[in-house]
TrEMBL record, chains A, B:
Keywords: DNA-binding, Transcription, Transcription regulation. One of its GO terms (molecular function) is transcription cis-regulatory region binding. Residues 6-61 form the HTH lacI-type domain. Transmembrane segments: none annotated. This is LacI family transcriptional regulator. Residues 312-346 are annotated as: Disordered. The keyword ATP-binding does not apply. It holds the Pfam family Peripla_BP_3.
Amino acid sequence: MVTRRPTRDDVAREAGTSSAVVSYVINHGPRPVSEQTRRKVLDAIRRTGYVPNNIAKSLANGTSDTYALLVTDLANPFLAQMTKALEHKLFSLGKTLLVGDSSDDPSRQMELLESFQRQQVSGLVWYGVDQPLPMDALETYPGTVVMLNQPEGQELSPSAGRRVRLGLDESEEARMATAHLIGHGYQKLAIIAGPRERLNSRERIRGWKRAIRESGLEPGQEIFVPYTCQGGYEAAELVDDQVEAVFASNELQAMGFLAGMAQRDKKVPDDVALAAMNGTDQSAYLIPSLTAVQLSEDEIADKIAKVLLKPDGAYQDTGDDGDDKPGGYETSVAPTNRSDAPVRTGLGTIPAAPQLVIGRSCGCSQNEV
Amino acid sequence: MVTRRPTRDDVAREAGTSSAVVSYVINHGPRPVSEQTRRKVLDAIRRTGYVPNNIAKSLANGTSDTYALLVTDLANPFLAQMTKALEHKLFSLGKTLLVGDSSDDPSRQMELLESFQRQQVSGLVWYGVDQPLPMDALETYPGTVVMLNQPEGQELSPSAGRRVRLGLDESEEARMATAHLIGHGYQKLAIIAGPRERLNSRERIRGWKRAIRESGLEPGQEIFVPYTCQGGYEAAELVDDQVEAVFASNELQAMGFLAGMAQRDKKVPDDVALAAMNGTDQSAYLIPSLTAVQLSEDEIADKIAKVLLKPDGAYQDTGDDGDDKPGGYETSVAPTNRSDAPVRTGLGTIPAAPQLVIGRSCGCSQNEV
DNA sequence: CTGAAAGCGCTTACAG
DNA sequence: CTGAAAGCGCTTACAG
């Protein structure tokens, strides 16, 4: 009785066949196996309690079935939801998920990137620190890369990553939320942004400004605080008295802002209205419930998985939408015959379909939830 | 110019040495390398852009440096924090983390368990669905196992998992929070428990009851709802009018309960006081701020890592505490000489040091935050 | 201090 | 339909 875990050879011996056959049975191919032998093998597997060694399999195949998710903060509800959704999706496909939390530290992010590379992940989903975006690293990264955020001015060279994809449009989400506030008639608008030096702070400011300009108004106060509850709480102290409505760059900030306002006996939305982006299921349970642009994490996870697993990394929306946005993706690619060589640049956008979920924080429906 | 990723052999060729030497350099052993050769190798690594293949390394070593975390809900703030803390800790040790979200589904949990086993994880951290606890699976699981929760009546057979550890004492956390409420003078106490059939719901009920009995009071209403915001929200409808104080089994429930009370124009703590367990950084930003028993995720992660990485899986607290609880762990083990064979059962408890963090929801300090 | 070679547990042409 | 054997990229005794 050996104490070490049984290998494929043990199973083969037990079944009285070769180990190749065991492989064929386990993998349903690539060679056929007679029903009788198959049964013997299956039986031997059960008797030995054999569990395949995926490490060895990966080495032999030259490709692993694990993927990596690298985000800035696993404790951020939106990213936590995203992680959960992606884990579920990958699990349903028999894949496994490695996670990394960069905590907004660029060097940590780089180390994580390399660590995943050493682990031979087949693909990477990235929500990044953006100080100097490690574009070169991402462009040359082995395997498919899906970038969830990608600030303006940090475009990928189309030549480079033939497997790189772009993702969410954060400025558009900011615009949507802000436009809704403006629809209420508020004129003096402030933004709770992230740290001043971060590019994705500016990205959201950009969307906020766009909404304001489109309505002929003037942008108001910009408050730079961390993307945390504490940041939002501080923003409540910093916000000018004449501000009528505030856009928060994420749910944690909104949460902290609400707490800060309550602490100062200010009413939301009566004294100041509030809307945010990247809301989650929790938004409905804040006090007052939070109006926020939300993304469907499950939907995004589905789309990510589609890109990640497609062998050539090409993204194609199988949905029915096609012209919801001007100047769409894939437009520059002529309809070449599919049977051709994969001469695509591979760049593409995953449309994310942000949706405004109404709560009471903006001043809508004072009556019901 | 080859397009495939460079291997150790490529580096060796480039450096004009054998591949063994490259290994020695990379791994700082196990054989010494002359400074000169070392430099040549390092140079070759840089020139080729070589990144070691950890998959191959794992296969050769027979042990991987990835660990798995399996929880019931990654979107639960406490578990999200736990995930983050563990990721950080493992990263600092050069290890990598696989995550699984069972979503309280026992069969999903089992599949995840096997999937991790196929990935050859060196250890598993488990916060589990507990319907029928898969004790056998956990006891025979290859590698070290750390169980974060472990309901009463589901003890491990001491003979079995010589590498299995027990974790948090959830009933004690429930007791602490409830005892604090009682200290305020509340007499009619309700509990927002998890789903009726789950063992860890009962675990928390047990602690809640203990606190009540210890004060000579009678347990009051038990409300069974999911461990979610929605669950807590529903609890606000279900709670009896005469209840003076409520203990919530987790932060999400507390959050939902607060929203539900606000919706019904009931004041917390004036109409009903509230305290919870497994609070997080978010607790301070609820309205009113939540009094909750909290665990230090970082501290727990440190301890977990200690167990996970210790070769023989033995747990030893290096801290200065030793007799904070009666009938401690490791007591049955006579002080055998360390140089002996590892004849230990391996069972042990990681003390988690729950701490009560005071907010305003319980009725303390109505003045300040 | 350095190198040739076997072995980790799989997969998969290739030959029966 | 089945099996012997090479190969995936490492590690590490074992000889020099």
